[in-house]
Amino acid sequence: MEHPIFELNNISYIYRDKMETTPALKDINLSVHKGDFVALVGPNGSGKTTLIKLILGVLKLQSGEIYINGNSLRNFHAWQEVGYVSQKSNSFSKGFPATVSEVVLSGLTKAKGLFRRFGREDYRKLDEVLSLLNISHLKNKNISLLSGGQTQRVFIARALINNPSILVLDEPTVGIDAKHVKEFYDVLFRLKEQSVTILLVTHDIGVVVDHADEVACLNEHLHFHGTNHEFKNLGEAELSKIYGFPLQLVSHDHERACCE
Ligand SMILES: Nc1ncnc2c1ncn2[C@@H]1O[C@H](COP(=O)(O)OP(=O)(O)OP(=O)(O)O)[C@@H](O)[C@H]1O
């Protein structure tokens, strides 16, 4: 098997301030391979954001190692390899005077620096990602005029314009209606076909298990990491143990939903 696109080895993290210490992650080991779509799930306060901040280099590693494409994060500079779409992307556009093209091209500043001019290859790449996300027709539109689902695609395109090996998405379907949630998963499916590795943080476990290849369940420890089929077969007792309250996966209308 190929070596993992990213690998977490014995990651632990504790928040410390003058008053208290809060353990957030304990001994996390996780390997993700090229083209995998992994859903990272867990209850509130289970360490998902902390883990993402460590992967994105926003928080400094305290113990353990993270490798991206075989390179240790401790001396990692190739941040254009890691695309990130935050939960807040949807609210970003309100009143922001920029076109879709400008927002997507701004994703290149990670690689090119703030004041570099864009060249022919940049515009070719822009057209490619807009087409991949079916938003070519919105190219010259002002971002503030887009719907939530369209805005979300623009920010995915912005993350993809650097050709990242990994795309990290933090709660991307919050505030998006059912139709756009479906379209969103269609987009992820297309990205997967292009061998983009996806790490999706979500509370929406009922929907995501039908789309992701693998599910990783966090609650300070990594309680489970396996295929979506293995996750669906977890018993009520195991799920409730991870979440800390009674929980089961139920099916209706061919979709699975998560209920207390
Ligand atoms: N800056 C911080 N200072 C101190 N403790 C923190 C800080 N950020 C998070 N924590 C604590 O670390 C633990 C993990 O938090 P984290 O935000 O990673 O969880 P999460 O799974 O992303 O939660 P949610 O689903 O609610 O967004 C929690 O106990 C939280 O209170």
What does it look like?
With 260 residues, this protein is α/β, with parallel strands linked by helices. Helix content is 31%, strand content 28%. The strands form three sheets. Strands 6-7-8-3-9-10 form a six-stranded mixed sheet, with helices on both faces. A four-stranded antiparallel sheet has the order 2-1-4-5, covered by helices on one side. Helix 5 packs across helix 6 and helix 6 packs parallel to helix 7. It is globular and about 50 Å long. The termini are far apart. The C terminus is likely disordered. The structure holds adenosine-5'-triphosphate (ATP). Adenosine-5'-triphosphate binds next to strand 2 and helix 1.
The low-confidence runs, each spanning 5 or more residues with pLDDT under 50, are 251-260
Please describe the biggest sheet, giving its number of strands, its sense, and whether it closes into a barrel: 6 strands, mixed
Termini separation comes to 39 Å
The tally of strands reads 12
Report Rg: 19 Å
Counted by DSSP, the helix tally is 10
Helical content stands at: 25-40%
SSE class: alpha/beta
Strand content: 25-35%
InterPro entries: AAA+_ATPase, ABC_transporter-like_ATP-bd, Metal_Ion_Import_ABC, P-loop_NTPase
Domain ABC transporter: 6-244
Family: Belongs to the ABC transporter superfamily.
Organism: Salinicoccus bachuensis
